[in-house]
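Project standup — Tuesday

K.O.: blocked on the structure for the chain from last sprint. Re-posting the sequence here as requested.
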Amino acid sequence: MSRRTPKAAVKRMAEFVMAKTAPLLWRTRDRSLVVLMYHRVLPPGDSRLELEQPGMYVHPSTLRLHLVALKRHFQPVQLDHWIQAARDNAPLPERAFAITFDDGWSDNFEHAYPVLAAENVPATIFVVSDMVGTGRLFWPERLGTLLRQGLARHAAQLYSLSEFAWLRALDAQIPSSVEELNPERLDRIINNAKLDDDATLCARVDDMASSLGDSECPQEVELLDWEQIRKMVRGGLISIGSHTRRHMRLSDALTIEQLHDEITGSKHVIESNAGCEVRLFCYPNGDATAAARMLVAENYLAACSTMPGWHSVRGDRYMIRRIAVHQDITGDETSFLARLSGWI
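H.V.: unblocked you, prediction finished:
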């Protein structure tokens, strides 16, 4: 049986204290909203976990644990309904929570939706309109897949290929074998790669794929399709929001025409295919220039950021704060309640 390190033991003790104390203090936070940010919901042993970043998933049982704990302290609400009521100065629950999922992964339908339905908790799923139903992947998942394929074929010599050589310049310890390519190491590579803009990264990954050949790069992970989306919308628990057309970070690297396409174009695509009004937006990676925020405000009721914390009734509805939760830091009720406290 493994023993906790002194540092881990101190952290665990702090979590116990916060988990006991925080709910008492929450009673004083009237008309506040806790917005949870999830991405993927995958069961233990799922092959899709092998190269997924640690901060990107929870298990279905953990999601259920979260929802049960939340309902003991807060009232579940649909995010756009709460925002609309706050804007109109209408009555609000004393304390409420809203669930959001970013990216629109197929496991949101496969594993998250049944849990949400069983607990009768609404949620908003932010989808990338032009990737729905295509079987394509985001560049981080493609990068992980290509690294595994390339290392299996070339081992450490992979980086002598010009299409993979750029990885050497990253301030990260690149793996020299498939065995060394674990989620933690891949996480560092992806985070350091984000210093480049999305167009550059997508082009680099395309070149990597071409160098290996399409047959060696199977698309193992798929996103939601329109029929799955429509089924969830018809069920009444799920609202669909926009996460742009191509998951492009809304930075200064984009022209005003590109911003319009990503922000307003995605809304039109989703509404025409999902058969529902799209009232909420979510900034990819939390990035948003002043021009991007202005366009979002002209076209949406509200927008979610990646800034941590609770959203207050007087908060900026176009920069809604959220609490990111994932398996490695909220796998039990104590760590989850401590995370909600906002102190860690």
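K.O.: great, moving the ticket to review. The two ends are 27 Å apart (CA to CA). The CA atoms of residues 123 and 163 lie 40 Å apart.
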